[in-house]
Amino acid sequence: MNILSAIVALRDDFIRWPNERERTELAQRIDNQSRIPCVVGAIDGCHIIIKQPVSNAVNFYNLNNQHSIILQRVCDDHKIFTDIFIGILGRVHDARVFRNSPLFEQLTGNPALLPPNQHLIGDAAYPLLTILMKPFRNSDHLTPRQTRFNQVLSGQRSVIERAFGLLKGKWRRLKYLDVALAAKIPEVVLAACILHNFLLRRVKKHEYGEDAYNSKIMKMMKLIYKF
Fold it and tell me: Which cellular compartments is it found in (predicted)?
């Protein structure tokens, strides 16, 4: 097993959906920060620029005239990813990526993962759903209250953009992936996201409890030093 495959195998240890207690605590923190109740994460899609593929290149071509794949991610208020979905071709719209993601199927099929009183927040590209809040459409007819809501939502949602900036700043290879095997690209991105969470969670032992935390950290440290 190479180091890429070994890190990817640790996905469930470091990227996981918050449980009921964690979602309640997360929603309370976000409410304290922004006064938007019942929010348990921010969602967004971003483009990972790649070398032009040998085949099917037109479907990777995005609106910025670059070849890319899309990384959909959800994060909490500490910039920790709680879900990621990688590999949809760059020409696809964020809303379609979401509807085709395992997360959409899980959240709409299992209310226990996100009950009706909890929501994600996204930008205007996303559909308005019971599980997803988005801004009011910008127009000259918004009320002051609607305008204020948009401002607060945008401020809270910016955490997902900061998380991606942190990810790319730490793992600069993600700014342009020149990988010979296109099938390996999602694994490279996934490994970077796992390491991103690993680094952030090192300072948050209370999320796991001492024994569980040490077990997960030791797994990663043994893996790193092995290679």
Answer: Nucleus
